[in-house]
């Protein structure tokens, strides 16, 4: 006895879900990286920019927990705390200390990434629903979204990890957006983000995923520093960023959000044809 089941969605993309820092605002995703470094410094533990960026995209408490599990940081914690390991209570305390550090920094890093406002405006004009999801908590998200709105950016919905049982890489924010806007199936959804956690959450939801390599966490540099790089250095670093996102399973990788409309056209053509 044999059984064969094949299902293919025939239709266009309906919902575009995009990250905030490093994807739509805050070129280089500098606000969260700097806040993690400062918070750990206050605990007597030195962390590098690469270590701070590794878990980027996760809910910020989960991000801290992931960092303290890194062998080098775990040892740094023991060195600074008389040999004691970091506990869940320590993580809770650090998260509470992190919140005001991050909130203070956010207004300085809210500028829209070039091309994003126009791209989102065009998508909504063309009938797509556009949702923002983030690893920030609700208070942080509101600061960022309000700042983006003042610049002309509009979202149909904004969600953070606190709105669902678990943040990225779990797919729950994506499913919550689909439920709230009555959009399905997952093949009608595109998830865009600048972190591996973004890619993971999209794949876990069964959605299309587009990685952003240049404007966010993967390159990890503000726009002015990117502009100063030699073409060869920039090309090499972007090649590495693209490779990491493809290795994580991204369906597509681009430099930034303004490159995504052509990708969505390709997705529509692949699963819609002449519809």
Describe the 3D structure:
The chain contains twelve helices and six strands. Helix 1 packs across helix 5 (88-105) and helix 3 crosses helix 5 (88-105). A six-stranded parallel beta sheet has the order 3-2-1-4-5-6, sandwiched between helices. The protein is of the alpha/beta class and 275 residues long. The chain has two domains: 15-29 and 112-272, Rossmann fold, CATH 3.40.50; 31-108, Putative phosphatase, domain 2 (DNA polymerase, domain 1), CATH 1.10.150. Helix 7 (138-150) links the parallel strand 2 and strand 3.
List the helices and strands and how they pair.
Layout: E1 15-18, H1 30-42, H2 49-53, H3 60-68, H4 71-80, H5 88-105, H6 116-125, E2 129-134, H7 138-150, E3 157-160, H8 172-181, E4 189-193, H9 196-205, E5 208-212, H10 223-228, H11 231-247, E6 252-254, H12 260-272
Parallel strand pairs: 1-2, 1-4, 2-3, 4-5, 5-6
Helix pairs in contact: 1-5, 3-5
């Amino acid at each position: 006895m044999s059984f064969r089941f094949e299902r293919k969605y025939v239709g266009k993309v309906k919902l575009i879900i995009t990250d905030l820092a490093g994807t739509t605002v805050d070129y280089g995703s500098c606000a969260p990286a700097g806040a993690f470094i400062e918070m750990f410094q206050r605990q007597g533990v030195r962390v590098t920019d690469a270590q701070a960026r590794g878990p980027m995209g996760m809910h910020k408490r989960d991000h801290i927990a992931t960092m303290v599990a890194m062998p080098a940081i775990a040892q740094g914690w023991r060195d600074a705390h008389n040999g004691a390991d970091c506990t869940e209570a320590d993580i809770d305390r650090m998260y509470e200390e992190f919140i005001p550090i991050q909130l203070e920094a956010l207004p300085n890093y809210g500028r829209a990434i070039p091309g994003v406002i126009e791209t989102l405006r065009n998508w909504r004009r063309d009938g797509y629903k556009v949702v923002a999801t983030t690893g920030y908590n609700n208070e942080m998200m509101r600061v960022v979204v309000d700042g983006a709105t003042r610049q002309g950016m509009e979202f149909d919905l904004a969600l953070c990890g606190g709105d669902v049982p678990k943040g990225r890489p779990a797919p729950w924010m994506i499913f919550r957006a689909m439920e709230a806007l009555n959009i399905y199936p997952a093949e009608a959804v595109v998830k865009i983000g600048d972190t591996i956690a973004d890619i993971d959450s999209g794949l876990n939801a069964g959605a299309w995923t587009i990685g952003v390599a240049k404007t966010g966490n993967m390159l990890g540099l503000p726009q002015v520093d990117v502009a100063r790089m030699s073409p060869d250095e920039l090309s090499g670093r972007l090649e590495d960023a693209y490779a990491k996102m493809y290795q994580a399973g991204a369906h597509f990788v681009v430099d930034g959000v303004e490159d995504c409309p052509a990708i969505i056209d390709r997705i529509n053509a692949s699963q819609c044809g002449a519809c």
